Amino acid sequence: MTEYLLPLEQMIEQLGSLPGVGRKTAAKYAFHLLELPAEDLEQFCATLLEGKRRIKTCKFCNNLCQGEVCTICADPKRVNGQICVVEDVKTLMAMERSGGYKGEYHVLGGALSPIDGIGPDQIDVAGLMNRIKNGPQPIKEVIVATNPTVEGETTALYITRLLKDTDILVTRLACGIPVGADLEYADEVTLTRALEGRQSLN
Amino acid sequence: MTEYLLPLEQMIEQLGSLPGVGRKTAAKYAFHLLELPAEDLEQFCATLLEGKRRIKTCKFCNNLCQGEVCTICADPKRVNGQICVVEDVKTLMAMERSGGYKGEYHVLGGALSPIDGIGPDQIDVAGLMNRIKNGPQPIKEVIVATNPTVEGETTALYITRLLKDTDILVTRLACGIPVGADLEYADEVTLTRALEGRQSLN
Q1: Which stretches of chain B drop beneath a pLDDT of 50?
Q2: Residues linked to residue A106 through DSSP beta bridges, in sequence order
Q3: ipTM
């Protein structure tokens, strides 16, 4: 392992904290940034800090926004009594890209994971319940779009239990074969879920 | 392509300027940095700016250093009348990793490339000549370790011509088959060069 000058080592260490970046890639980034004119590197850093400063989370749904309320919560056309509950903003954005959903969202900021010390107080279940109870419009359906992992399923179950004495419909995204995939290569769990969720064609 | 909030778009644009980073990776980095506590992101940026501020280039050889002179030029054991000419600091570091070279270096900061407007004035040939003519010790050998590309070969030829009326030995790194490689998969140019550079075994 090459030893660099201390300030360069420190740059490499910081850049190596980016997701999926190892020491070699971090060194490549560090050399690139060192070769930039000083004002370009200052602009680079200023943009990152400015982004962090200006991007807030929506006070209703925790989506990213610039003011207090995100564009989805502020859009009167999206108010239709549906809330789609997601783990993070990336999932929200994936749902938006699909274009198939016209209701509102609620970003939990994680999923229940007792082993990692993440209980109901570490994710924003309280905010979701508050919106359902005290929101301006009645909620008819909560679509739980947490990931199909142990943590995501646990979270879905927890939310379902919290809402069991209401007349709100709680639904979950269908699990099954991805469109375009080959049945031969589907894993057993997915095949089982696809069979359980089979739908009538007539 | 997902459209993000403007400050997030600007973060993604800056991160996408890192070498080999596309939009998706840049977005992954941006989300990671957004999720950091503000003080961690400030530390991240401070380390990059501090590195840029503290790392200078050696006034003799252009290697990276923290003062005016790099550790190699300041090491009296390295003063042996040999200068290894490289295109960039990364090549210098690769040479140092090999451990096989005990002389000094000169970092040109590029290679001659008329098509890109890089002539002898855009790389530090003048500094090299100055060291050879006015340096404290006589130079016996200049090892031209520019890359085996058109630009690198042109640069090697140019330096050889500049030194043709001196009694300095000008050498070039051997081109040939990489150690451990299979001859079957070597390209024609490398094979030809390896044949031309064949060495007697007896």
Answers
A1: none
A2: A85
A3: 0.81
